[in-house]
Design a protein that fits this description.
CATH class of the largest domain: Mainly Beta
CATH superfamily of the largest domain: F0F1 ATP synthase delta/epsilon subunit, N-terminal
Number of strands: 10
CATH topology of the largest domain: ATP Synthase, domain 1
Structural class: alpha+beta
Mean pLDDT: 92
Number of domains: 2
CATH architecture of the largest domain: Sandwich
Strand order of the largest sheet: 2-1-9-8-5
Strand content: 35-45%
Distance between the termini: 32 Å
Number of helices: 2
Shape: globular
Radius of gyration: 16 Å
Order of helices and strands: EEEEEEEEEEHH
Low-confidence stretches: none
Amino acid sequence: MALTLKLEIVTPEARTYSEQVEMVTLPGAEGEMGIYPNHVPILAQVIPGEIVVRKDGQDFFLAIGEGFVEITGDRVAIMTDMAIRAENIDEAQAEAARKRAEARLKEKLDEGEAARVSAALAASLAQLKVKRRVK
């Protein structure tokens, strides 16, 4: 029997994912992290991007927002503001959000609003990357 680890992804709305998996690749603030069973314990920041989950020998993709990950030898727990499976991403909606955010960034914004718009842009770009990968 192959070693697995429990992947749990939680957003403010719900537990988005909770399954035994073989491997997880996720975007960390220090770079991309590949996590296999028996990984050394880590607490790290997650940035918007793509998560690759290997389960039963197949890769599945999710778009993820900002958050944190706690990694232990048998568990990966991600707390994030967004997690969407590739099949649930509306490409047209994500593209429209990208365009709106890029247009807003050209305006004169205060620091807080610029940060919010930049976060929205990063989230839409993550969704588009994941959706276009699985097409």
